[in-house]
């Protein structure tokens, strides 16, 4: 069966450390993988998109990797801040035009000062 | 640029009642999505429109849910009659490009529905 799993429901880290979130998938062949941030009571906000032929993508303190052999994406936040506390969702984009995104359950990140 | 607008933000109804949600996507966005997000889960697609046509409604419980997108702009999602398990946040999202992958989606704030 098709599955998309994010490694843990909740992750607590200290301010200044690097947070690493994992997204694994089974029986999908995504052409792209997207990461979103969701704050309580709000809709998800797009952060980064990585293509299947890209190994790594960076944006400011964010870094995403995509390993199609391992069927895994890692999402890193360096020098984490309390303002980074939120739920982070990964989403598979199968790349067939009108096919919708498939979302994981999300990981709730808490950065402790 | 204004974001995706949704109303109401909150709604409490009793089971077997009906409810409607409204979404106004970002101007010019061709594709509109309705998602259901149950507490602790990721968003799950209910229906996808491209302009005013339905692209994917395979996960919409059609015996009780209906949606329309008149004139390819605003959209409404209706539940009639509601069940307890329909308690969730209903998210509307849009994307500028139709029929092409690899573009981010813009989400509205959602409508939190509680069915008692």
Largest interface: A-B, 28 and 28 residues
Report the mean per-residue pLDDT of chain B as an integer. Answer: 93
Mean pLDDT of chain A: 93
The fraction of residues assigned to DSSP E strands of chain B is: over 45%
| Computed Rg of chain A | 14 Å
- Biggest β-sheet of chain B: count, sense, barrel? 7 strands, mixed
Rg of chain B computed from alpha carbons, rounded to a whole number of angstroms: 13 Å
Structural class of chain B: mainly beta
> Which residues of chain B sit in consecutive blocks of at least 5 with pLDDT less than 50?
none
Total number of helices of chain B: 0
Number of strands of chain A: 11
**Through-space gap between termini of chain A:** 41 Å
Instruction: Please report the distance between the alpha carbons of the first and last residues of chain B.
Output: 37 Å
Q: Indicate the structural class of chain A.
A: mainly beta
Number of helices of chain A: 0
How many extended strands of chain B? 11
- The multimeric state of the shown protein is heterodimer
- Gross geometry of chain B: globular
How big a fraction of the residues of chain A is strand?
over 45%
Helix content of chain A: under 10%
What is the general shape of chain A? globular
